[in-house]
Design a protein that fits this description.
The chain has a six-stranded mixed sheet with strand order 5-4-3-8-7-6, with helices on one face. A five-stranded mixed sheet has the order 10-11-9-13-12, covered by helices on one side. The chain is of the alpha+beta class and 506 residues long. It is built from 13 helices and 25 strands. The N and C termini lie far apart (90 Å). A hairpin with a 7-residue loop joins strand 6 and strand 7.
């Protein structure tokens, strides 16, 4: 008997069939056709457009997502790829395997997307195919940009007003708006005599601005609406909204006289107080005792008062002698409010700068600037005893309790032009009209001086380095005691020119 070695026998090859079209041996499949012939007979991408159009707004750099939504999408981003796929109507009849962008020139206004899909054909045969869809980018202005380009086309306006002689509050508000970018949704900004007008495309954007103003300044607001049109069939009404914002008519460095009820509410503070800072509340100080208090907008409108002296009435005085008051000599009584730890209450003897060397009569008063003043320094203050003040609350006070002079701040010399030439920083502005209004006004230059003297105020403002001034012109002509803004506090202003970009690509 012979045994057959199965390992030595030849193995049977896999079964093959001939393609019914071209006769090429192929593996069996339900269509009995090779891949090449199957692709010539069946196109699974039939019904999927190979060209499409995308609408792009050059004003806001957004793409239109039908029917009426505009979205931000960077080139070759996931958001842009999703938008391109949504433009293809017949893509739901096949299964999408892969999709990606093909590089095109950025200025060609063409986008190419490579797609890989597969689908079942002819009795369950699965066919995979790769194809390219070309998108043409057409320019179309969105509704928001169209409204901004149109003249006087707005749906909501915010009118910011302050009934005060000093306009430094608006310079400070302008810088706060720029730092927090609260003006991004504005259609236009119009400066007027008493304030600023902001225009918006809808009511919600205007209310955001009102919330921002209430968070940075003490103010109150009122609103009204005007019917423009309405559709009786769909019950749709179109209104124009107007919001009026009134800022408290008290500015920094103003002298105020408080009502009697309000002084009791603030811990029996002196009626005559100095406004040493303004944020979302009014910061008051009694210069004779160092007691401080804060008044919010609600409290102010409940007990309104006006300023009896404004910064335009400041007079220069020369310090003859100054002596800090000891702690044991300070009057402390139960129920007294908070006392400032930064300021030092001192007795000071003054003489007017215009009468220096002419009159030997010195004026004695108390000041909160004992930490910064020394004999021989100059200070700015209000001559309350020589002023003609017309105020109801002030007339009720005892004349013996009214000080003759109230000092406000230290004075750093008379050469203002040299100080401005040595300033190597600058501020940005909301509009060109604001620039012309501010630079021609001397109050703006005084506001810049206050920024140099007040570090706490500078924390809320973006200060940019002035590229046109490399170094101070001449430091010898400036008093070294004048506060200066350091380079660490300045930001570099980013300016991209076509010439700069050409040098980069070279």
């Amino acid at each position: 008997m012979e045994y057959i070695d199965e390992s030595a026998m030849p193995k049977e090859s896999a079964a093959h069939i001939l393609c019914c079209e071209c006769g090429v041996p192929i593996s069996p499949n339900p269509a009995n056709m090779c891949v090449a012939c199957l692709r010539t007979r069946v196109d699974i991408t039939d019904g999927i457009p190979k060209q499409a159009t995308l609408h792009f707004c050059k004003g806001c750099e957004r793409y239109l997502q039908p029917p009426a939504e505009w979205i931000h999408a960077a080139l070759e981003s996931r958001e842009l790829l999703s938008l391109c796929l949504k433009k293809l109507k017949g893509l739901n009849r096949v299964k999408l395997i892969d999709a990606g962008f093909i590089w095109t020139e950025p200025h060609s206004k063409r986008l190419k997307v490579k797609l890989t899909v597969h689908a079942e054909v002819m009795g369950g045969t699965v066919l995979q195919q790769v194809f390219v869809v070309e998108y043409v980018v057409n320019h179309q202005m969105c509704d928001d940009c169209h409204r901004s380009e149109a003249q006087d086309y707005w749906r909501a306006s915010v009118q910011v007003r302050q009934k005060a002689i000093n306009k430094k509050t608006f310079f400070y508000l302008e810088q706060l708006i720029l730092k927090h970018k609260a003006h991004d949704q504005t259609l236009g900004i119009k400066p007027i005599h008493d304030g600023l007008d902001f225009y918006y495309a809808n009511e919600s954007a205007a209310r955001k601005m009102i919330d921002f103003l209430g968070a940075v300044l003490p103010c109150r607001s009122h609103h009204s609406k005007k019917l423009i049109s309405h559709d009786i069939h769909s019950n749709v009404y179109n209104y124009k909204f107007t919001f009026s914002v009134e800022i408290v008519p008290i500015s920094k460095d103003s002298l105020v006289c408080l009502p009697k009820k309000l002084t009791h509410h603030l811990g029996n503070i002196s009626p005559i107080c100095l406004v040493y800072r303004t944020t979302n509340v009014i910061h008051l100080m009694d210069v004779s005792s160092g007691q401080i208090a804060e008044i919010n907008a609600t409290t102010y409108w409940r007990y309104p008062f006006n300023s009896i002296c404004n910064p335009k009435q400041l007079t220069e005085y020369v310090v003859i002698d100054i002596e800090p008051i000891k702690e044991k000599d300070k009057k402390i009584f139960p129920g007294q409010g908070a006392v400032s730890n930064k300021h030092v209450v001192s007795d000071v003897w003054l003489v007017k700068a215009s009468e220096l060397g002419i009159s030997e009569n010195t004026i004695h008063t108390r000041t909160h600037l004992g930490y910064i003043l020394k004999p021989g320094d100059s200070a700015l203050g209000y001559a309350v005893g020589d002023s003609n003040i017309n105020d109801t609350n002030f007339e009720k006070l005892d004349g013996d309790l009214i000080p003759d002079v109230i000092l406000v701040k230290k004075f750093y010399g008379h050469d203002k032009l040299a100080r401005r030439r040595a300033r190597v920083w600058k501020l940005k502005h909301l509009a060109e009209e604001v620039v012309s209004m501010s630079t021609e006004n001397n109050e703006y230059n005084e506001f810049l001086d206050e920024l140099e003297e007040d570090p706490e105020m500078r924390q809320n403002i973006n200060i940019f380095r002035d590229a046109s001034k490399q170094m101070p012109v001449d430091t010898d002509e400036i008093d070294p005691s004048i506060p200066q803004i350091t380079l660490e506090e300045m930001l570099d202003d980013l300016v991209i020119d076509d010439t700069d970009m050409a040098e980069v690509y070279q």
